[in-house]
Design goal:
Length: 326
């Protein structure tokens, strides 16, 4: 059985719980819009990570299903709003929420998913002290995601961004939710807060590698692999780590041309040229190296836990996060 099949099996209770909560109510348009992206599929990496972490520390992952589903709901709430902000037309290979239901309803759909997540956590059959801890932690994480999103928006107005600032942005916007998954799974599994925080930090770091690799794939993978048009970050002029590294490494001629492509209307040929510049100056290979460094650090943390099916699956999941589509 390959990793994709293993993840799909672990994700089945997540899908079932999503279908239970995201049933169509009145007003119909709002609830259809809310269910549109979550029920379209997705990798379910965050909720599966929560379940695997719970198992790995010796807990009962059945008790973590609602929390895990809440994280997937939070993730989808951010996707719906991201697509509005980025004006992206595709998500998971289907039409983005706002392209079908309109901008106003898409914003409300995201808000609805956000609310559902906290309903799911409070419905969980876990100790009240753990439940309160998870509600507080997830609320904090969502606020930090908003900070990261605003940093990302701010970066669009700058010619270039320092690598450390970009890494902080993606830590907040993307990887912190992986950290929340590991933390919550560990707490539900019975670990103390210190051990759970170590796992949270490990998963957050791998989340950085995941996003760096995502940026890499955005530039290099086909639309079939991505489920959305390739090169969308370049089209929008985003200063991803890939772009930052390219601007720092390119010669003056390459740098001028890359900035020209990033900061003006561009076409498919321009995108290909930009990717070629990134390759020639070594930015692509550097991002590949950085993504894998985060993976190595995570492996060391996992070795502290007894060998088990859960640990093996966790190791495979982490490796997939920074090598998928390669």
């Amino acid at each position: 059985m390959n990793l994709k099949e293993k993840i799909a099996i672990r994700a089945k209770p997540i899908d079932k719980t999503l279908q239970k909560y995201l049933k169509i109510r009145e007003p119909t348009k709002l609830y259809e819009a809310s269910a549109h992206i979550p029920l379209a599929g997705g990798k379910r990496l965050r909720p599966v990570m929560a379940l695997i972490t719970c198992d790995m520390v010796g807990g009962d992952s059945e008790k973590a299903i609602l929390f895990a589903t809440a994280l997937e709901t939070i993730h989808n709430f951010t996707l719906v709003h991201d697509d509005v902000m980025d004006d992206d037309d595709l998500r998971h290979g289907v039409a983005a929420c706002h392209t079908i239901y309109g901008l106003s309803t898409a914003i409300l759909a995201g808000d609805t998913l956000f609310a559902y997540a906290f309903e799911m956590i409070t419905d969980s059959d876990i100790d009240d002290r753990i439940k309160a801890d998870l509600v507080q932690n997830v609320a904090y994480v969502v606020r930090k995601i908003a900070e990261g999103q605003q940093m990302d928006i701010n970066f669009e107005e700058k010619e270039t961004v320092e690598p450390k600032d970009y890494l902080e942005m993606i830590r907040l916007k993307t990887s912190i939710l992986f950290g929340a998954a590991a933390y919550g799974g560990a707490r539900i599994g019975g670990t103390n807060e210190d051990e759970a925080r170590e796992l949270e930090n490990m998963a957050t770091n791998v989340g950085l590698g995941f996003q760096i690799w995502d940026d890499y794939l955005d530039a290099t993978a086909s639309e079939d692999v991505l489920g959305k048009p390739s090169g969308s970050d370049i089209r929008q002029g985003k200063r991803t780590l890939l772009v930052i590294e390219a601007l720092n490494r390119a010669n003056s001629k390459q740098r001028r041309r890359l900035l020209e492509i990033l900061d003006s209307d561009n076409n498919d040929e321009d995108i290909v040229e930009a990717v070629n510049i990134m390759d020639e100056c070594g930015a692509l290979s550097e991002c590949h190296i950085q993504a894998n460094k985060y993976l190595e650090g995570a492996r060391k943390v996992l070795l502290k836990y007894p060998e088990s099916e859960a640990r093996t699956l966790f190791e495979e999941l982490l490796e997939y996060m920074v090598t998928r589509g390669h």
